[in-house]
Amino acid sequence: MSIDFSLNLIVYTVGAFVLGWILSAISSRMTNKKQDQKRNPHDHRIRSLEADQRVAQTESEKANEKREKLEDELKQTTVDLGKRDGVISHQQKKIDKFKRDLKVSVRKTRELREELTDRASENIKSEVKLREVETELEIAQVSADMIATGVLDYSLTEDIGKNVVDEDVPDDEKDGDDSVLGKAITDF
């Protein structure tokens, strides 16, 4: 019987516990409904606003963190742009200097080219004059050789040369010995 008694006691205890729990759940639901009906409708609105405030604060904190990161990036970008501007201005100064140097070099090159052209033309003129002088010297040498050998006789050549030269040569070009000598040499 002792086992029956203890088993009955356990069953009664568990039954009483379950019955108490069911009754307390029913009574709490009924009291909650009454309290919900008695509650101020503004309380619900207040709780909703508080929840919205908490959400807004977390979003505000996130936005502040993003803003700080963007400010740091902006500062870094500003520093980088300043450095680039410095490099660009330095390079622009170099370019300007090179342009000035190039203009001076071009001007000097043109001057040297003109000077070389003048020298070349002077060299050509002097070479032409030198050839003319050499030709005249060769002619004088040939005539001296002809006079020395007796092939050229001025007394005969002058009489023949005067008649031919006077007829062919205009009055302003008659020089005397030079034209006669040239005519005599060409006649020979």
Outline type:
rod-shaped
Supply the number of helical segments: 4
Distance between the termini: 183 Å
User: Approximately how much beta-strand content do the residues carry?
Assistant: under 5%
Number of DSSP strands?
0
Instruction: Please state the average pLDDT score.
Output: 81
- Gyration radius, to the nearest Å? 65 Å
Largest sheet: none
Order of helices and strands: HHHH
Q: Runs with pLDDT <50, length 5+? A: 173-181
The secondary structure category is mainly alpha
Task: Write down the oligomeric state.
Answer: single chain
The amount of helix comes to over 70%
Care to describe what's here?
With 188 residues, the chain is mostly helical. It contains four helices and no strands. α3 crosses α4. The longest helix is centred in the middle third of the chain and has 109 residues, at 41-149. The chain is rod-shaped. The termini are far apart. Mean pLDDT is 81; it is low at 173-181.
Please give a handful of descriptors for the protein shown.
188 residues, mainly alpha, 4 helices, rod-shaped
What's the quick description here?
With 188 residues, this protein is mainly alpha-helical.
List the helices and strands and how they pair.
Elements: H1 2-38, H2 41-149, H3 154-168, H4 177-187
